[in-house]
Specification:
With about 260 residues, the protein is of the alpha/beta class. It has nine helices and ten strands. Helix content is about 35%, strand content about 25%. The strands form two sheets. The protein has a seven-stranded mixed sheet, with helices on both faces. The chain has a three-stranded mixed sheet with strand order 1-3-2. The chain is globular, with a radius of gyration of 20 Å.
Length: about 260
């Protein structure tokens, strides 16, 4: 009995250490992503899926691995299905990913307050300022809003801006951290903070949005939600579409596909 009391805590400690140590995986990339990696920056980064940390080679982006890859697969599918090729990268920083989007055949406008020197692709606008964007309404077929909504003060205004930029039937690809994952909920239970919304993140992450709230805002401002994907499912669920409960449980970030109605 005494030996068991000594062994059990040690085993628990070893298991906890194992789960904390990132496990390297080799991505089984789709053809599109493989071709993009031949042309654009990529490298190893960590992400969480379910209870474990992983490290994987991914395309350069501020989002966690699998997020940009999933967004790019959706964008390619939309364009192939006749969804149009004019794309607004809303909140796209200084245009770091614009070359990738241009390589897919899109005509791209990148809009962000970080743009210091506007040009034919990059435009300056502060998404925290209420009102219309400095573009024509209904100008775009697709809006990509990747890892932006959690940064802005008013998510309702952001989605109104995105809807105003889209033609009827156009699509919004929106990504954000998943506060409904098992890891995030456990962190909240212990600390009162969701994952990616801890005090050290408050300089840049200020809006923790559950799926229901994005659905609600979208429905009120002129969108219908088509699907929700998880970043890590790009690596772990190639052949089967996971249920929404599994998507929410396991993934660190979510990718929403919405249509303007």
């Amino acid at each position: 009995m005494n030996l068991l009391l000594q062994v059990v805590p040690r085993v628990r400690h070893e298991l906890a250490s194992l789960l904390r140590s990132p496990r390297a995986i080799k991505p089984d990339d789709r053809r599109l992503i493989t071709e993009l990696k031949d042309r654009f920056t990529h490298g190893p980064r960590e992400f969480r899926h379910g209870r474990r940390q992983y490290i994987v080679d991914c395309l350069y982006c501020h989002a966690v691995p699998g997020t940009f890859e999933t967004s790019l697969m959706l964008l390619q599918e939309l364009r192939s299905d006749g969804g149009g090729d004019s794309l607004l990268n809303l909140g796209g920083g200084t245009g770091q990913v614009a070359p990738v989007l241009l390589s897919l055949g899109f005509t791209v406008i990148n809009l962000d307050r970080e743009v210091d020197v506007p040009d034919e692709i990059n435009m300056s606008a502060d998404l925290n300022v209420p009102g219309d964007l400095p573009i024509a309404r209904g100008q775009f077929d697709i809006v990509l809003c990747q890892e932006v909504i959690e940064h802005v003060e008013n998510p309702w205004d952001l989605l109104r801006k995105a809807r105003g930029a889209l033609r009827l039937g156009g699509h919004l690809v929106l990504t954000t951290p998943n506060i409904q994952s098992i890891h995030s909920k456990r962190r909240f239970t212990k600390t009162g903070y969701f994952d990616w919304f801890t005090p050290d993140c408050f300089a840049y992450h200020v809006n923790a949005l559950p799926v229901w709230e994005i659905e609600l805002i979208g429905s009120r401002v002129g969108f219908r939600q088509i699907a929700v994907f998880g970043n890590g499912d790009y690596y772990f669920s190639r052949d089967a579409r996971p249920s929404i409960s599994d998507v929410l449980r396991n993934n660190e970030a979510l990718v929403f596909l919405l249509q303007a109605i």
